[in-house]
UniProtKB/TrEMBL annotation:
NCBIfam families: PRK10792.1, PRK14186.1. Residues 135-276 form the Tetrahydrofolate dehydrogenase/cyclohydrolase NAD(P)-binding domain. It comes from Ligilactobacillus agilis DSM 20509. Belongs to the tetrahydrofolate dehydrogenase/cyclohydrolase family. NADP(+) binds at G161, R162, S163, V227. The lineage of its organism: Bacteria, Bacillati, Bacillota, Bacilli, Lactobacillales. This is Bifunctional protein FolD. InterPro entries: Aminoacid_DH-like_N_sf, NAD(P)-bd_dom_sf, THF_DH/CycHdrlase, THF_DH/CycHdrlase_cat_dom, THF_DH/CycHdrlase_CS, THF_DH/CycHdrlase_NAD-bd_dom. Keywords: Amino-acid biosynthesis, Histidine biosynthesis, Hydrolase, Methionine biosynthesis, Multifunctional enzyme, NADP, One-carbon metabolism, Oxidoreductase, Purine biosynthesis. Residues 1-116 form the Tetrahydrofolate dehydrogenase/cyclohydrolase catalytic domain. Catalyzes the oxidation of 5,10-methylenetetrahydrofolate to 5,10-methenyltetrahydrofolate and then the hydrolysis of 5,10-methenyltetrahydrofolate to 10-formyltetrahydrofolate. It catalyses: (6R)-5,10-methenyltetrahydrofolate + H2O = (6R)-10-formyltetrahydrofolate + H(+); (6R)-5,10-methylene-5,6,7,8-tetrahydrofolate + NADP(+) = (6R)-5,10-methenyltetrahydrofolate + NADPH. Gene3D superfamilies: Leucine Dehydrogenase, chain A, domain 1 (3.40.50.10860), NAD(P)-binding Rossmann-like Domain (3.40.50.720).
């Protein structure tokens, strides 16, 4: 499944919507990105986001804060963006340094500007199937499946991983799409027996190539969320491509699968928020 190509298509459509937004309301979508510390992988994501935004016509306001920044200063910055009517989306790159309480930061972002969909209010709405904002990675996966004509309705969907960023919101989206959902994690007994049941398998563990051809049902659709940089600089997923390719009906590559879709969905959410701005929020 070619996430890179689909992401290009999504971004081309967004570019038009951004132009329309300017013509009809003179609004430029603005996204504030906050990165704390100098994690090189995170810097790559921030750069990719900025590049994508520039192409679409979204303005990004990047804040690269030192790892030593205090929690109070970070919260103050978020409060400023909450109040600023010209900022439509706020994203704080995770993980944060240990001295900063991640939950406190996530909760500080105004739900109506929470482009990641990580605020408990947005998570709650998502689980009740009345979402305001959708976490970008799971949403990108749903759009990929839809583009390939794969409907989760009635299917056995197994999600490996239960993080707040990927696994948990993925459960909600799949349930909302009428799948029969199983969630596996590090305490799951006999993981292979569980993954082998899946018609659609979503793997988000951060364990390089842990899922092999022996772990999947022939013909399964396999979504590899993992982005793992090996010591030699090589990028691999959580799925072993060589052994899975011959068994699965579809597989998302790494790179070029879920990652580019995540960025496209972040852009989409920002444009959607800008389009809604001025209307009644909650
Ligand atoms: N492509 C993209 O857009 C994105 C990619 N990623 C990538 O996806 C991967 C996962 O990210 P994230 O969800 O944030 O990771 P986390 O580390 O937050 O969560 C990993 C999850 O996998 C589970 N897990 C770990 N090891 C095993 C195992 N051996 N067997 C079964 N389950 C296991 C953990 O279980 P437990 O809860 O029990 O600890 C946990 O629930 C990473 O490689 C990350 O880089 C992340 C976000 C976006
Ligand atoms: N608040 C927050 N929101 C996030 O969405 C978030 C986060 N924090 N912290 C880190 C993870 C990780 N993540 C990725 C996004 C894009 C690619 C991506 O574009 N990957 C490219 C390759 C990138 C490369 O070459 O390094 C690909 O898979 O083709 C990867 C990973 C978002 N995350």
């Amino acid at each position: 499944m070619d996430g890179k190509k689909l992401a290009q298509e999504v971004k081309a459509e967004l570019k038009q919507r951004v132009e329309e937004l300017w013509t009809s309301k003179q609004i430029v979508p603005r996204l504030a990105v906050i990165l704390v510390g100098e994690d090189p992988a995170s810097q790559v994501y921030v750069r990719n986001k900025r590049r994508a935004a520039e192409k679409i016509g979204i303005k990004t306001v990047d804040n690269l804060l030192p790892a030593t920044v205090s929690e109070a200063d970070l919260l103050d910055l978020i409060y400023e963006y909450n109040e600023d009517p010209n900022i439509h989306g706020i994203l704080v790159q995770l993980p944060l340094p240990a001295h900063i309480d991640e939950a406190k930061v996530t909760h500080a972002i105004l739900p109506s500007k929470d482009v990641d969909g990580f605020h408990p209010v947005n998570m709650g709405h998502l689980f009740m199937n009345m979402p305001h904002s959708l976490p970008c990675t799971p949403r990108g996966i749903m759009e990929l499946l839809a583009a390939y004509g794969i409907s989760p309705a009635g299917k056995e969907v197994v999600i490996v991983g239960r993080s707040n960023i990927v696994g948990r919101p993925m459960v909600a989206l799949m349930l909302n799409a009428d799948a029969t959902v199983t969630v596996a994690h590090s305490k799951t007994k006999d993981l292979r027996a569980v993954t082998k049941r899946a018609d659609i398998l979503v793997v988000a563990t951060g364990r390089p190539e842990m899922i092999t051809g022996a772990d999947i049902k022939p013909g399964a659709v396999v979504i590899d969320v993992g982005v793992n940089r090996l010591a030699d600089g090589h990028l691999v997923g959580d799925v072993q491509r060589q052994t899975v390719e011959g068994v699965a009906s579809y597989l998302t590559p790494v790179p070029g699968g879920v990652g580019p879709m995540t960025i496209a969905m972040l852009m989409k959410q920002t444009v959607e928020f800008a389009e809604k701005s001025g209307q009644d929020g909650y």
